[in-house]
Amino acid sequence: MSSILQAHNVEKCYGTKNNLTKALNGISFTVESGDFVGIMGASGSGKTTLLNCISTIDRATSGQILIAGEDVTAMSQKSLSKFRRESLGFIFQDFNLLDTLTDYENIALALTSLKTPAQHIDSRVNEVAGILGITEILEKYPYQMSGGQKQRVACARAIVTKPSLVLADEPTGALDSKSAKALLESFRQLVQARAATILMVTHDAFSASYCDKIMFIRDGLLFHQLLRGPQTRKQFFDQIIEVVSALGGDSDDLG
Predict the structure, then answer these.
(1) pLDDT-derived band of residue 11, with 50, 70 and 90 as boundaries?
(2) What mean pLDDT comes out for the span 87-100?
(3) pTM of the predicted structure, to 2 decimals
(4) Alpha-carbon distances, residue 80 vs 65, 72, 87 (angstroms)
(5) Which among 31, 44, 65 has a CA at the least distance from the CA of 227?
(6) Which of 149, 168, 191, 221 is the most exposed, having the fewest neighbouring CB atoms within 10 Å of its CB?
(7) Does the structure show a pLDDT above 60 at 254?
(8) Which 3 state secondary structure label does DSSP give 216?
(9) CB 229: neighbour CB atoms within 10 A?
């Protein structure tokens, strides 16, 4: 497998010289193609700051972030905007769907923004809809759907452009347990069917147990990593809980 994401000694500082806060303190790690990686850590640990720097929403103070071989820390704002559209997919807790568009149109919009030929849009939308089990609701509007259905549509929108990396920020946070489980199983299907690479910030050990690897962040540094390997999801969940306890709180504190 090839590396999709490489972070080298990334720092993010806020404040002035006399009152400096390091949200990220020289963090380094690698994410391979086709990985489903979770990021966990207590509030203030730096996990959201890290996601913002990777997503190019924020700039690292120092260090280097490479995505699909491209150094996003050295790009101009114009280049970053283009790179974000073409190479990154985003899944948010609050869905961010347009209520005036059908599900099909919400998903297709991601392709039209990239000037995808019209004759290719229908097959691309229907392909991801089939993987995510939302084909039957493509003509509905967001207000006609459950939260779980909305999030799967948002997931389809993120993946339909075939991005190098999908970034998910607490994607199950607004869902009930049944919908959360369905979404996480959809993530697994995307990884298996389309070799998608997903980086997910979560406070929830249950959600994290669906990942291939968990990175635990503390004080802006990589505190620990867990690999699932051949373990069952229940065994992996138990390991995650052990590390959460070592971090000094239960899973509800990792928000």
Answers:
(1) very high
(2) 90
(3) 0.89
(4) 13, 7, 10
(5) 31
(6) 221
(7) no
(8) strand
(9) 9
How many domains is the chain built from? Answer: 1
pLDDT band of residue 248 (cuts 50, 70, 90) is: low
Is the pLDDT at 56 greater than 60, yes or no? yes
Inter-CA distances, 207 with 15, 63, 248, Å: 34, 30, 19
Q: What are the CA-CA distances from residue 205 to residues 39, 40, 233, 235 (Å)? A: 11, 9, 11, 12
Sheet order of strands, 3-16 included: 19-32, 3-16, 62-67, 70-71
Residue 73 domain boundaries: 3-253
Q: Which tokens belong to 134?
A: 């939302």
The amino acid occupying position 253 is D
Q: What is the CATH number of the domain that holds 123?
A: 3.40.50.300
Which one-letter DSSP state was computed for residue 70? E
Q: How far is CA 119 from CA 86, 102, 108, 116, in A?
A: 19, 19, 12, 8
Dihedral angle over CA of 203, 208, 211, 214, nearest 10: 60
Percent of the chain scored above 90 by pLDDT?
A: 71
